[in-house]
From TrEMBL:
Its main location: membrane. It is a multi-pass membrane protein. The chain crosses the membrane at residues 32-52, 91-112, 151-173, 185-204, 216-232, 238-255, 267-289, 295-317, 337-365. It holds the Pfam family Na_H_Exchanger. InterPro entries: Cation/H_exchanger_TM, Na+/solute_symporter_sf. GO terms for cellular component: membrane. Residues 21-361 form the Cation/H+ exchanger transmembrane domain. GO terms for biological process: proton transmembrane transport. Keywords: Antiport, Ion transport, Membrane, Transmembrane, Transmembrane helix, Transport. It is found in: Membrane. This is Sodium/hydrogen exchanger.
């Protein structure tokens, strides 16, 4: 047996070597790296001439690795705010899970003669599946889940029910009494969840107001909360993994994608702890005994039964009237989350150790089948694949519009996720530049603690430039911002008859950005309807840009959409909404846009939020009626919320610019 220093050095060498080989092979085969970590651990058990002791570095890190797998699984699960599950979907998810779990459990109970608890747990393992198909197997995260529809919700329910079943079955297997202990576990889980929901978020909000998210204090606090909640669960005789999952689920709303704290947590887990667990699991699995024919037969039986049942379940689910379509991959692909629960289930006595090998063989066969089935599908972005985070550039100068614009910007992310907001203060280069910068910074620092939706760091930056339009356009390019949000407020930018206002000039320059100009006079939370004015038929060419954004805002504000436009325009919008946005309530009102539109009669409700979708100046129609819509809206809705939306111009669209200096002068004077 090597001495302590040599054993620690060898353990570290095993971890980094297994990590390098696992990630490299996963990139080549599209199989999850956790399976290669298992294989590396198994090979290690055959080649080493000694058995790793319980106090070795690899064994100790493996215990923390199991906790981090569960914690990161919950922390990296992203919910689409546009998706809200219903009770019938929860019932359908549970029935779909039972449709697989019960036959598999019956097979193992009657054919393989194992006890009822182990058979039920085996059935739940077979029924569990990942929330949605991962974007890529190896990337910044070992697991990237996005719950944006029924398929993702079904997977989330299956994994959570398996985790809860492990906690209850583990308590049942380790105790002699039944009812009192299970009641104690249920009450303990409820009390700790109440603590997580009430105390922890308030403490984090208080700290985030005073400490930047990039500070290591937030990172260490996350680790303290994780370890503290896990130990509290263990002290209350509850499965600690349930506490790790609950901690990750609660803390996820305070960690944004791409933030420093999330990258530090991922590095802590994925670099050493998570590979340590899977390598040690593979090492231990080999020591449990040789692989036998009954193990292979059991693995083949559960694989065949699971896939046949999944095919039948997909056929039945797709026969419903629901717009969501399921595929076999939606209900078969599993996460390494399940292997952790298998290991802990064997350690808690829920399943016999002899059942580990056939269940691991089933998971390996299931992963290979999913990879082969995925290769046969057409390449491209899957429906559930998350988009990159939206970046919103927010020029600020008026303290009256800062807070309302920040609240509106929080609703402008892709797929319901929070947008990355970049406030910028553009000031002219004069003798009062420094005073203006300090004044705006002081006003911004007073307002930012009131930002109710602040789950991320929002930091003000300053740019000195005498040309504000050019400064905003260049800053948007430098920050890769795809949306620019302006505040109208009391600034009369729309009252110049020449049409060369700041907004219109910016719309002619920043063609690749979606520009939004908001006039906010009331709380957006009171919005009941969203009136969408589609000014011209040419806007249908860019509906893939503005229509999802409008639907996103409506769902975040829990409002109904009312579309206004020509009859032909509304017909195409209805067709698109019926095909892709069935769950979004909407209605239409036809009007002759070329003859003008009396905006005062659109909606008498003062809580309606009106959005006018406009084209850029170079694409105005000949009658130019919708060019007057901004001025009409400013006069009609001076005391209400409205917004002007200029969709980004697609690449390849011909841009018509003034042909001569005389043409520019005429346009400046308002004659053309």
């Amino acid at each position: 047996m090597p001495d302590t220093l040599l054993l620690t050095t060898l353990s570290f060498l095993f971890i980094v070597s297994g990590g390098f080989l696992g990630i490299s092979l996963a990139r080549l085969t599209r199989v999850h790296p956790a399976y290669f970590f298992l294989l590396f651990g198994g090979v290690l058990a055959f080649t080493l001439r000694f058995v790793l002791p319980q106090r070795s570095l690899l064994s100790e890190l493996a215990e923390l690795g199991a906790i981090f797998v569960i914690f990161l699984a919950a922390l990296e699960t992203q919910w689409d705010a546009r998706f809200s599950w219903r009770f019938d979907e929860l019932v359908a998810a549970l029935l779909t899970q039972l449709a697989v779990a019960m036959p598999v459990a019956a097979l193992f109970y009657f054919w393989f003669k194992i006890d009822m608890t182990a058979a039920c747990f085996t059935g739940l393992v077979a029924a569990a599946h990942a929330p949605e198909r991962r974007r890529q197997v190896v990337g910044d995260s070992f697991r990237h889940n996005m719950i944006s529809g029924e398929a993702g919700f079904f997977g989330f329910v299956s994994e959570v029910s398996l985790l809860i079943a492990l906690a209850l079955m583990g308590a049942f297997a380790q105790r002699e009494t039944i009812s009192a202990d299970l009641l104690q576990v249920a009450v303990g889980i409820l009390l700790i969840l109440i603590l997580l929901i009430t105390f922890v978020p308030q403490m984090l909000r208080l700290l985030l107001r005073r400490v930047s998210e990039e500070s290591y204090a937030i990172y260490y606090l996350m680790l303290v909360l994780l370890i503290g909640i896990t130990l509290l669960m263990r002290r209350a005789a509850i499965e600690p993994l349930l506490g790790a999952f609950a901690a990750g689920f609660v803390l996820a709303r305070f960690v944004t994608e791409g933030s420093k704290v999330l990258e530090r947590l991922r590095f802590t887990g994925h670099s050493l702890l998570v590979p340590s667990f899977f390598i040690m699991f593979g090492f231990t699995l080999v020591l449990t005994g040789p692989l036998t024919a009954p193990h292979l037969f059991a693995a083949a039986a559960i694989t065949l039964a699971t896939w046949v049942l999944r095919f039948l379940a997909v056929r039945l689910l797709n026969m419903r009237a629901a717009p969501a379509r399921f595929s076999v991959l939606h209900l078969t692909r599993k996460n390494p989350f399940v292997m952790v629960l298998l290991y802990v289930g064997a350690a808690r006595g829920v399943i016999p150790v002899s059942l580990l090998q056939p269940l691991l063989l089933y998971l390996v066969a299931n992963e290979l089948l999913c990879v082969l089935l995925g290769l046969s599908e057409p390449q491209g972005e899957t429906p559930g694949e998350p988009k990159a985070d939206a970046r919103v550039l927010l020029p600020v100068s008026n303290p009256e519009t800062m807070l309302p614009l920040l609240n509106l910007a929080s609703h402008l992310g892709h797929s319901g996720r929070a947008a990355r907001i970049h406030p910028v203060n553009v000031v002219s280069d004069t003798g009062e530049t420094e005073a203006k910068i300090r004044s705006v910074e002081a006003q911004f620092n007073e307002i930012i603690p009131l930002y109710a939706a602040r789950d991320q760091v929002v930091q003000l930056s300053t740019r000195i430039d005498n040309n504000r339009i050019r400064a905003v356009a260049r800053t948007a390019r430098e920050l890769l911002a795809d949306r620019i949000l302006l505040g109208l407020g009391a600034i009369p930018t729309l009252q110049r008859p020449q049409g060369y206002s700041f907004l219109e000039s910016l719309s002619e320059i920043a063609l690749q950005n979606t520009i939004l100009a908001a006039h906010l006079q009331a709380d957006l939370a009171l919005t009941s309807h969203i009136n969408v004015i589609v000014a011209n038929r040419t806007l249908l060419e860019s509906r893939e840009v503005w229509l999802p954004l409008v639907v996103q805002i409506a769902r975040r504000l829990h409002s109904e959409i009312v579309f206004f436009g020509d009859q032909a325009v509304l017909a195409e919008i209805e067709q698109h909404m019926h095909a892709d946005e069935r769950s979004t309530p909407y209605s239409t009102r036809a009007g002759q846009m070329h003859a003008g539109l009396d905006l005062v009669t659109l909606d008498a409700n003062a809580n309606a939020f009106s959005i006018a979708v406009l084209e850029r100046t170079f694409r105005y129609p000949d009658e130019k009626i919708h060019a007057r819509l901004p001025e009409m809206m400013l006069r009609a809705f001076s005391d209400r919320n409205f917004m002007l939306l200029y969709p980004a111009v697609a690449a390849g669209v011909q841009i018509k610019k003034p042909r001569s200096a005389w043409r520019k002068i005429k346009r400046f004077m308002g004659f053309s």
